[in-house]
Design a protein that fits this description.
The protein is mostly beta strands and 219 residues long. Helix content is 9%, strand content 51%. It has 3 helices and 7 strands; from the N terminus they run αββββααβββ. The protein has a 7-stranded antiparallel sheet with strand order 1-2-3-4-5-6-7, with no helix packed on it. Helix 2 runs antiparallel to helix 3. The chain is elongated. It starts with 12 loop residues before the first helix and ends with a strand.
C-alpha cells in the first residue's frame, strides 16, 4: 500500500552521542607509627565515565611511605604504583571525528537500519557523514594503558652534631601500550573494506642518585 517507506521520526545525533555520566572515586588510607618509625599506605580507585558514549578513564594506584630511625641512621622510602586505562575520542576534532560527524549526519538517518545494522548516508543528497555512534562503538575496545612505578629511597647518617650525610636514589619506570583495531565501514556513502590493527609500545626508565654532605651550625 505504501510505495514510499515512512521516514525516520528523526535522530538527535547530539543526544545519541552525549549523555550524563557518573564519576566514582574511592580512597583507603592506613597510617601509624612510633617514636622511631612511621608509615602511611594509601590506595585509590578512580572511574570517570565519559559524557561521550563508550569513552572512559580509569586509574588504580597504591602509595606507600615509611621512615625508620635506629641510632644515628635514618632510612625511608616513598613508592607509587599506578595503572591508567582510557578510551577517548576527544583528540583531533576534524570533520571525520565523532563530533564532526554529528554535525554532518542528517536527522532523517536512524542510528540502525531495519536489519539492525549501522545506518549510514547511503542515499543521494545525504552527504558523506559517518554514523558517529558506529564510530564510537567500533573504538570502544581501543584501550590505552599506562603503567608507572615512581619511587625514592634514602639513607641519612648523623656523623656529628650538625653534620650529616644523605644518599637518595629515585626511579621512574613507564610502560605504555596502545592497540587500535580498525573496522570496515560498509554503511558509509564513501565506504571502506579495510580491516587494520595498529599497536604502539613504549617503555622508559629514569633514575636519579643524589649524595649530599651537610653541616648546619649556629654560632
Amino acid at each position: 500500500d505504501n510505495l514510499i517507506m515512512r521516514s525516520s521520526p528523526g535522530t538527535n545525533w547530539w543526544d545519541e552521542v552525549f549523555s550524563p555520566a557518573a564519576v566514582q572515586d574511592y580512597n583507603l588510607n592506613v597510617s601509624g607509627g612510633t617514636e622511631n618509625a612511621r608509615y602511611n599506605v594509601s590506595a585509590n580507585y578512580f572511574d570517570q565515565q565519559g559524557t561521550m558514549k563508550y569513552n572512559y578513564f580509569k586509574r588504580y594506584s597504591i602509595r606507600a611511605n615509611s621512615e625508620f630511625k635506629a641510632g644515628r641512621i635514618t632510612i625511608g622510602e616513598n613508592l607509587t604504583l599506578s595503572r591508567q586505562q582510557s578510551v577517548s575520542n576527544f583528540g583531533n576534532q576534524g570533520e571525520g571525528s565523532p563530533i564532526g560527524n554529528i554535525i554532518k549526519m542528517q536527522p532523517i538517518i536512524p542510528v540502525r537500519d531495519v536489519g539492525e545494522w549501522w545506518a549510514g548516508a547511503k542515499a543521494n543528497s545525504l552527504g558523506n557523514g559517518s554514523n558517529p555512534v558506529a564510530q564510537l562503538w567500533k573504538d570502544k575496545d581501543n584501550v590505552f594503558t599506562a603503567n608507572q612505578v615512581l619511587g625514592n629511597a634514602y639513607l641519612r647518617l648523623d656523623i656529628a652534631d650538625g653534620l650529616y650525610a644523605r644518599t637518595s636514589f629515585g626511579i621512574q619506570f613507564d610502560l605504555n601500550n596502545d592497540k587500535r583495531f580498525g573496522f570496515p565501514t560498509p554503511e558509509n556513502s564513501e565506504p571502506t573494506n579495510i580491516t587494520s590493527l595498529t599497536e604502539n609500545f613504549n617503555q622508559s626508565f629514569n633514575y636519579t642518585w643524589t649524595n649530599t654532605l651537610n653541616y648546619v651550625k649556629i654560632f
